[in-house]
Amino acid sequence: MTPVCRVGLFLISLLFETVCQAQTSPALPRPSARQLAWQPLETTAFLHFTVNTYTDKEWGDGTESPSIFNPTKLDARQWIKALKDAGFKMAIITAKHHDGFCLWPSKMTEHSVKNSPWKNGKGDVVREVADACREFGLKFGVYLSPWDRHEPRYGTASYNDYYKSQLRELLTNYGPISEVWFDGAKGENAKDMTYDFAGYWALVRELQPNAVMFSDAGPDVRWVGNEAGNAGETCWSTINTEGLAPGKADSKYLNRGDATGKQWVPAETDVSIRPGWFYHAAEDAKVRSGKNLVSLYYQSVGRNSLLLLNVPPNRDGLFSEPDIASLREFRSILDETFKTNLVAKQPKLTDKQLNTFLTVSANQPLIIELGSEKSFDRMSIQENIATGQRVASGRVEYWNGTDWQPLQTFTTVGYKRLLRFPEVKSSKLRLFITNANGPVQLAEVGVFKASARE
Ligand code: FUL
């Protein structure tokens, strides 16, 4: 072929590709690189720890003396190892909760670990957690409460400078930060205060461009709308953020997302392993069981969300035994359930890669062969979300030897949809996408037999 022909052919194929793309891919919102890296973390942990751990409160009022903070056996390696063993991929520490007490020796205030008896005021909880995360290969994130009940500047414009200076300390002194959590909570009688969120967010982008930012409605990650561990059965990663702000968002809207949303802001499901967010000895017998945590996994990760499970360190500065036991059982059950994908190997659909996919149009049946008759009761479906989220509804059927039988219907898929149904025996299934925003990029399909401990 002459070079001219080759260039001609190249141009034609480029044109063809462009036309095809224009036809098959309406401009759907897509995740940014940082959101795309965040979504497959699946199980992440929250660490709520502050003076409340010693006062037995959930919200401190800012008058607590730093002298009460004394976690004499504090061992962040113990926390992070327990999380690592349970398959968690990130830990987020409450560097400062609403009481204003700082777990790191901030230069901006005296209200911090530096005036506590712990390590004679030389300790830094944030550093210990960041180091342990690095050692065990977890990502690390920080929670810095905008609502501050201790700082006298709160309620004046200069509080925004105070907050930004603290943010700068956290974002520059502790290595890579993967998530910054902006809590929208503010008590009813709190002083009036307009937060400079635009300024806070710009600072995070400048200092830690790979970090995702959480607040009720993004910019990168949104609240799931409840603290019970329930993502919507329908859960779009898209919403319209206009008019929404931290502390000002309709929780039902956040829970389900919006099929017509213009911004990609996936839901994060934050929930505690105990009734409270902070450690209370009286709740030692109320720790969620491993089985209960597995249900949370289905209700969050299995509904296109991410699980942010809070495990609060106790007064000694350690995870308590019941919490560690539940975490261990949680992972052991999940491992057993999802160990063997019963789908006969299909390049693209069972290679655990989201970027290799089958393109499926609405109502075009997809046969999923199991190779021989198998017993199963769980199914997993994933889209290639790098190019957006498309599935709005679908159904699955199984072959009973004579006929196709209904198995389950579902709505959104996105990153991952997990289906639970009573056990059936069959050699093949049939999947229909019944409604979608365009040709679906079906990335992964799994069929499983759940652990008897679920
Ligand atoms: C809420 C706070 O008020 C709780 O104390 C906790 O930190 C939770 C994760 O967010 O808004």
Written account of the structure:
It is a single chain. The chain is an alpha/beta fold and 454 residues long. It folds into 2 domains: 304 residues, TIM Barrel (Alpha-Beta Barrel); 91 residues, Sandwich (Jelly Rolls). The chain contains 10 helices and 16 strands. The chain has an 8-stranded parallel beta sheet. β4, α7 and β5 form a beta-alpha-beta unit. α4 runs parallel beside α5. It is globular, with a radius of gyration of 24 Å. It starts with a helix and ends in a 6-residue tail after the last strand. Bound molecules: beta-L-fucopyranose. Beta-L-fucopyranose (FUL) binds next to loops.
> Biggest sheet: strands side by side, in what order?
5-4-3-2-1-10-9-6
Residues in β-strands, percent: 15-25%
CATH topology of the largest domain: TIM Barrel
In this structure, how is the largest beta sheet organized? 8 strands, parallel
Structural class: alpha/beta
Estimate the helix proportion, in percent. 25-40%
Any idea of the CATH class of the largest domain? Answer: Alpha Beta
Low-confidence stretches: 1-24
Overall pLDDT metric? 94
Please name the CATH architecture of the largest domain: Alpha-Beta Barrel
Task: Using the CA coordinates, give the radius of gyration.
Answer: 24 Å
- Count of helical segments? 10
Terminal Cα separation, in Å? 62 Å
Ligand inventory reads: beta-L-fucopyranose
Record field, number of beta strands: 16
Question: How many structural domains in the coordinates?
Answer: 2
Query: What is the chain-wise order of helices and strands?
Result: HHEHHEHEHEHEEEHEEHEHEEEEEE
Considering the protein shown, what is the CATH homologous superfamily of the largest domain? Glycosidases
Shape verdict = globular
